[in-house]
Amino acid sequence: MTIRILVADDHPIFRDGLVTSLEETGEFRVVATASSADEAVRLADQKRPDIALLDMSMPGGGLNAVKRVAAAGTAGQVAMLTVSEKDENVATALRNGAIAYILKGVSARELRSVLKGVARGEAHISPELASKVLTFMSSSGPAQIASPLDDLTKREEDILKLVAQGLSNKEAAAALNLQEKTVKHYMTTIMGKLHARNRVEAALIAHKAWGSDDDGGA
Prior knowledge:
Elements: E1 3-8, H1 12-23, E2 28-34, H2 37-47, E3 51-54, H3 62-72, E4 77-82, H4 87-95, E5 100-103, H5 108-119, E6 124-125, H6 127-138, H7 154-164, H8 169-176, H9 180-194, H10 199-210
Parallel strand pairs: 1-2, 1-3, 3-4, 4-5, 5-6
């Protein structure tokens, strides 16, 4: 199944190269391109892409575009592709509804791999950025999201620990000798209990509560 994608970036040369890189394997079809936040929001509403891939620094602001597209539900998933490694930008993008935060230094092959996961609902953030965001959120005052980890069952804890380590549903299922669909069901329950919008937020909550203690927890 071809993944339909909206690309928003205000640099024409980069945008054109990105479109070519995405479409060259036939796995993606770019249904629209935009150069500003307003245009991205309008085209997402018109085209209803599987993924809206948004730049941070385009006119109108990428964070603004993320918030508006996510709130409107006009894209299956929203992802950021940017050069910005600022802690506050990463944290705000995730809070605004982005499921992935991808740095522009990735290869075309890695980007396609990440976006195929995003289309399946899998969150993505590099370990380096995840650590920076955790530090930023921990030093920014009271947590914005409740984290009732005590409500998790032992099985839910085990799954969340693996997800917090960066494992996909499939990898977590293999590690625990479960079916992938079972892990997906557990993750839905876990995110509900933690009031997390996505896997990234759930993982950050786990990191903050349990730190690097593999046995950690409630």
